[in-house]
Please model this.
Amino acid sequence: MENIPINARAKSKKSDRRAGVTLVETIVALAVLSVFTTGVCKLLLSHRKMSDMARAHYTAINIAKNRLELVRTFDFDQVGNFVEDKVVVDASGVPSTEGNYRRTTQIGTVSANLLELTVTVDLRNRKTLAFTPAKEVLATYIANYLEPGGGTAPAPPSA
Model:
């Protein structure tokens, strides 16, 4: 028999028993990894959904702003020509049957020389493809400027 110290023999037996990774340890490690990975995936998907919704709302507000600015470029007497009801538009505000937005422009009379312009933009639900109720609404007033003598002022020069 070799001259191996007793302590070394005891250590080698213990290390032989712990030399490999057991199947149970591997399964536990994979379970922990899968729980972590699932959580990260859910977090990323949730972030993506919120980001897409924020982008859609931002686009809807821009569609409404652009419509308001377009109406402001015309004379007071022509504002009534911009009334529209539930027109499907794309992200640029151009009418399109495949658009993800639906725009409604309403004009209310406050007084003879003051109109209230309201633009409502609805968003299309990507799962059901139906439009959700009014999500983004912008309103402004448009006034007809009068000359001191009582007549209508000439249109301001365009830039």
Summary: Residues 23-143 form one domain. The longest strand covers residues 101-111.
